[in-house]
Amino acid sequence: xxxxxxxxxxxxxxxxxxxxxxxxxxGLRASLRREGIFLTDCKEQDAAELAKGGGGFSLKREVDxxxxxxxxxxxxxxxxxxxxxxxxxxGIPLAESLQALIEQTENERLRAxxxxxxxxxxEGSAFADALAQHPKVFPELYVNMVRAGEAAGNLDQVLFRLxxxxxxxxxxxxxxxxxxxxxAIMLVVGILVMTVLMVVVVPKITAIFEDMGRALPWxxxxxxxxxxxxxxxxxxxxxxxxxxxxxxxxxxxxxxxREMWDRFLLKIWIVGPLVRILSxxxxxxxxxxxxxxxxxxxxxxxxVKFILDNAVLQKVVEDAHDAIREGDSIAAPLKRSGExxxxxxxxxxxxxxxxxxxxxxxxxxxxxxxxxxAKLGRLTSxxxxxxxxxxxxxxxxxxxxxxxxxxxxxxxxxxxx
Length: 417
Prior knowledge:
CATH superfamily of the largest domain: Type II secretion system (T2SS), domain F
CATH architecture of the largest domain: Up-down Bundle
CATH class of the largest domain: Mainly Alpha
Helix content: over 70%
CATH topology of the largest domain: Receptor-associated Protein
Order of helices and strands: EEHEHHHHHHHHHHHHHHHH
Strand content: 5-15%
Number of strands: 3
Structural class: mainly alpha
Radius of gyration: 30 Å
């Protein structure tokens, strides 16, 4: 069914715009009339192009903020996946299920994607092939799991596993972000406050010391020098900071730079163990879900290594892939690397011997997700007092450095009297 981008007037005479499926322009006009909209202009859109954000009229009514800020979110895809699985389990054919989802999806870009998927399925394409036409919405992991589900005839079960996997990933991501937001805000606010204090407030107070004609304490001299330096060179410092960040990001994009940076992250106190267990949890959860969905082990490892987002651990998974292809077990190369915790290696080895690797990997993921949550709680509890003490120490230094000369002046005046 064609997708039309339209403009019109609602019952109050307000201009509206959007997209809608219809058999023809006449059907579009009739459908909009039932919604109280008078059609003024329309044009047929390519659903694939609309899904990428191109073409169409700007929507003036009930703007979807998710479409503006990032388009189709992970939560949207997770909801779509679970709804599709539920409809398929109820015995509704795939094309009809997609049509039902088109009618109830609120995100306009996702609606366009689902419309394109239904069109391709009606033309005879496999669902996995249709999903592969939208790699920015459905990653390779998603497509391969759906392909395995179609081949095995259990697509609804695979989609339920995918939905569970996506929701678990979103929960873990939300916990990580929530734990780091407050310290990040405190850090930014603290830097801004101290910058204003040193550049604006301190120079006005310390100006009275210039007429004293007395030697100032070392801490006061250091405070005055720091204040003048920041006030005079803050644009240069800002430029150097931005340039340093950009240079670091550019260096991290190189293979050698990324490997060195990722290895450094794994060795940082507190941060390194957190990064490691987070990566291991993601590895175990993803591999378990793919194996349970029928994806072959070697193919699953090819995809899982990109989920880790750490060059050092990715190299370990690549070595494991090559070793398995040559007849080795998956636990042996992980143990030789020394990068995976011994408990994980042992559980994987037990799962391989007992034929329950998927279930063992799921247990690993559950265990380490709980550990991630506990470590994040401890990290947040540690960061808050450290940052408060640091900021309090800086403020105390500033106050002490200002008060010492003032007390000396009062004492000198008292002696003169």
